[in-house]
Protein 1
Amino acid sequence: MMASSLLLAGCGGERKDVTSPDGNIQVAVSGTSLSDMSYTVSVGGKELIVPSALGVKTEKPMLGENVKISYSHADEVNEEWTQPWGENKRVVNNYNEMTVSVTDGDENEMAVRFRVFNDGVAFRYEWNLGESADTVVVTDELTQFGLPADGKSWSIAASADTYELPYRIMPIGEVSDANTPFTFRTEAGVYGSVHEAALYDYPEMTLKRNADGVLQAELSPLPNGVKAYVPAQFATPWRTIQIADKATGLINSAMILNLNEPSKIADTSWIKPQKYIGIWWGMHLGTQTWIQGPRHGATTENAIKYIDFAVANNIQGVLFEGWNKGWENWGGSQSFDYLAPYSDFDLERIAKYAKEKGVELWMHNETGGNLPEYEAVLDSALAFYQSLGIHTLKTGYAGGIANGGTHHSQATVRHYQKVVEACAAHEIMLDAHEPIKETGIRRTWPNMMTREGARGMEWNAWSDGNDSEYLCILPFTRLLSGPMDYTPGIFDIDYSRAKADKGRIEWNGPNAHCCIKTTLARQIANWVIIYSPLQMASDMIENYEGHPAFQFFRDFDADCDWSEAVAGEIGEYIAVVRRAGENYFLGAGTNGEKREIEIPLDFLKEGVSYTATVYADDEQSDDPETYKISTLTVTSADKITVRMNANGGQAITFMPAK
Ligand code: NOJ
Ligand code: CA
């Protein structure tokens, strides 16, 4: 690192900084060569990131002798683009750009491109080493993030294999390693989050405190310790620092998406956000099984029941896990057959029935981490699903990656991308579990709909579960990266009854606590709060049948046009509004504190009267399953008070009054 006053010798007069369009955020660069280049970030004239190193370490130096550094500034970009689906279908992309380019006498070039938006800073490394140059062997990344030590942070630990970890709340200075999005708030009240955008053909980046006590980028290694093998012309993923003056500002930012390339799928008419149900929760409770046997979930009979329920309840998709042979190997040899249904699951009949009823049948491919086996049949499996009229696939990587790899290395990032592109070729939408983190690639590959990548609902079935504070951290951390298939909406809050009825199997373990740690109203609110263009009602349909509160999901629309986080503090509470067509949906949730928040309805269309149907906690009751449904007529001039019990929430539909 170098002090910012030590600017380049011999390049006098060049501007070495770049400012956001609104002038609030500034990045300044200094250094005399590749090895001592550093950057600072300031917000409102105050330093947020102290001089921090830049650079990539490679096996052989990329540049020769006689390096020259030059700075170039591009014209401000201010454009609007649209996407087939998303929190917001219209997105504004507004930034200033500066490129710092280092060249040698042989015209090899290594550049750092900075983009400064009103809501954050991004930069990436780009190199061009000439046509005949060898593959570049990346051994480390030198990027540092010199954030103030006394700021507060919310993050999960760095791991090469999983994001399904509890959040840690701690001073930035005490974080020894972390995954991204790494969210923080400084003493001065600046909110921020470090992440990455457009992760292709490269390992994921985590943060690690280095010997100098600074958080530094750490790349997930390949089994031989090398970080990445990349071409001689290459651009790394963007390193991103979202910046906002309010916690909700982080959520309302589209910077990560803006750093991705436009869609590569020309015809997106087959890509459809949808609500779905599935044969799923029973397996996690242990009342049903993935393998064929007396409690097998994915039977033809159950499939027909689920399809009928979907038709009757305005639900577009149905997922069946445990439909294919191989589940008896899960956790052992990890070998699945992606083409062979169990004999009690008549796939062709079910596909035909779903088609007749206008329901999307989902496929599920659990790989257990056996990538070679999956890649070998990927194309034929996808072609088979396509021939059955299937447009949606959920994948899973629950298990160690074959051949000593990890989930987050360059090799596995390539695998995940291969599946995205193969699915696109077969007009299949993808929902990946145990995925690589989302970095906005959904803009370029809009069939990459949603993914897991955090502790989802399943953790409530067989561990100590996710509490309401966790649910108030998620929107400001993991969800900043993009949609999550959390699979919300369990109505049978105390599910010990289900277990007592049907018996339980051992794998639920001693920690299973038989209770969802929120109120029922909060489960409804999560359908709005936790954005996913494929949104699941994850309970078993018998728990929804005849349940008055299920009307919310019937009315809900997963294909929203516009969204805004209207209130929230990290780990405390959150309120999000989404519009789909003429209807609006509000979801609010609190942590372990009972809370009231006032929300102006100025997001509603002016001059229109709306019927608001409110799904609220029952203030008179401690029973998390009790709730109240009420209706009122409102306009954009009104304010509402959202009252929530501890661990509670509230959901509201606003529909133009008839
Ligand atoms: C873990 C996934 O997150 C879950 O949704 C799935 O049911 C199991 N793996 C089995 O594939
Ligand atoms: Ca999982």
Note: The radius of gyration is 25 Å.
Protein 2
Amino acid sequence: MNAKKTRISTLQPPAGFKDILPDISNIWQFTEQVCREIFDNSGYKEIRTPILEKTQLFERSIGNETDIVQKEMYTFTDRSGDTLSMRPEGTAPAVRAYIEHSLGLTEQIFKIYYIGQMFRHERPQKGRLRQFHQIGAEIFNVKEPAAEVELLIILNGIFDKLNVKNKRVQLNSVGCPDCRPEYLNKLRIFLESSHAKLCNNCQRRMNTNPLRVLDCKEEECIPIIKTAPVIMDYLCSLCSEHFKKLQALLKETGIAFEINTKLVRGLDYYTRSAFEIISETGGSQNAIAAGGRYDNLVESMGGEPTPAAGFAIGVERLIDIADIKNKFLNPLLFVLSLGAAASAAGLKIASNLRERGIYVEFGYNERSLKSQLRRANKLGARFVLIIGENEMKSGAVTLKNMEAGTQESISLKDINHLAELVISSKK
Ligand code: HAM
């Protein structure tokens, strides 16, 4: 037994990779279904891109100096000598596909969504996995802030349907290549003056990627970051106007948000709007979704100049805080049968009711009435239909209401009446 256990444990998936077990797969399916429905109604069509891409794709889009590219990608050389990476996110592959298949030519405004695994070699902890899932959406060719507003409306719609409480939308503008360099310069000069007090990571980052210093959670960096110059004061007139319009539109559409001038993203492609949806219940890994505008990415990857924006939800984090357990009904009816003839009659009744959309469980090969009742109880069935030899003879079966503790006799032939009784209890 022990030897068996040892063998199994050596075959466990790598750290940070998890099975999604049948007891929660219905929550995953429901989450995906809610998202697909909202995407369908908003004109976003699904794209499925490969899990492996050339490493260059991520280097060029996410940025060479980001943690994702520097430290977190699963990268290897395949048997043909190509350097490949398991996708750490979905935007770069979506943009690659957009350019490669000239998707923007068929419809000027182009909207897609994706659902799938992403891979980042981070330190696993609650809410942080090495294989995780994202549900993301991207909209191409809309330069107006209506794009970001629609994305946030979609996100709110998803969170509402999944009963997510205590979430906050945080918003910032990260400027554009016209205004960001001046800000970065000011930020670098400021950080230089506190160089010795910064953590080791930030001492390095302040030269390679100074914006990320603003996101540092190390104790020694927090007081320094508090007094750092804010990008908002350096936005060019176009970025500033965009940000004002975005805020006005959000207010008009009733989307609550707060400005977080320290919100910077771990991916380099953003221009102007950056946002995160933060959960107050999710612990330290509290961003359930994030996104923003990336007006230069398509062009920088070889496409036509194409403004674009998008978001991605971290599905594990979302499911962790979604309050949707009550969406999953227990069986309405458990068909309990005793003996071969009753079993056949029971299977027929079960299949008839299932065709009518009723969730029915069946006793299968359990022998005693007691053990079948035990299983019906465990499953939380609302009714139990008892078919034994006597019932087969008399043609009248017993329907037990497990909650009320009552029972009544119904004709075996009158399935319509049975269906009505069971369905009416749902209301
Ligand atoms: P991101 O902020 O890197 O953005 O990831 C989006 C979301 O994925 C996060 O807010 C979080 O919920 C989830 N996530 C990220 N890393 C992990 C992890 N290691 N374990 C569990 N969940 C994680 C992007 O990926 C952008 N592509 C979003 C985007 C789309 N921007 C524009 N379009």
Note: The chain has two domains: 15-179+235-325, 329-424.
